[in-house]
């Protein structure tokens, strides 16, 4: 299933999909940013439906919060680089990097 990244941080990602993702589902995410692909294991923590306006009217999309699982130091650095290089990034008081609605806009979701 394809998804759009809405928000990403070093600990997880908020994705938008056309189908709902059941909470507690373990999955693999394939993030594609500027031709580079990264596979990350994650667990769905929450999912909610949202009505969105489009040029063709309204549609329902699902926003799911996924927590990264078993992300090693190299993986954390790669996520950090995605945030720095491809997103409208900002820091927080605790130094954790997050990004919202930047250039990272595609990926695939696979149930494990």
Estimate what percentage of residues fall within beta strands: over 45%
- For the record, the CATH architecture stands as Beta Barrel
**First and last CA, distance:** 13 Å
Give the oligomeric state: single chain
Mean pLDDT: 78
User: Which word captures the global form?
Assistant: globular
Number of strands: 8
Q: What is the CATH C level class, in words?
A: Mainly Beta
In angstroms, what is the radius of gyration? 14 Å
Roughly how much helix do the residues carry, as a percent range?
Answer: 10-25%
Q: Give the count of structural domains.
A: 1
> What structural class is derived from the secondary structure elements?
mainly beta
Could you give the order of the helices and strands? EEEEEHEEE
Within CATH, the superfamily carries the name: predicted glycosyltransferase like domains
Number of helices: 1
How would you portray this structure in words?
The longest helix is centred in the last third of the chain and has 14 residues. The protein is globular and about 40 Å long. About 14% of the residues have low confidence. Strands 1-2-5-4-3-8 form a 6-stranded antiparallel beta barrel. Strand 6 and strand 7 form a beta hairpin. The protein has one domain: Thrombin, subunit H (Beta Barrel), CATH 2.40.10. The chain is mostly beta strands.
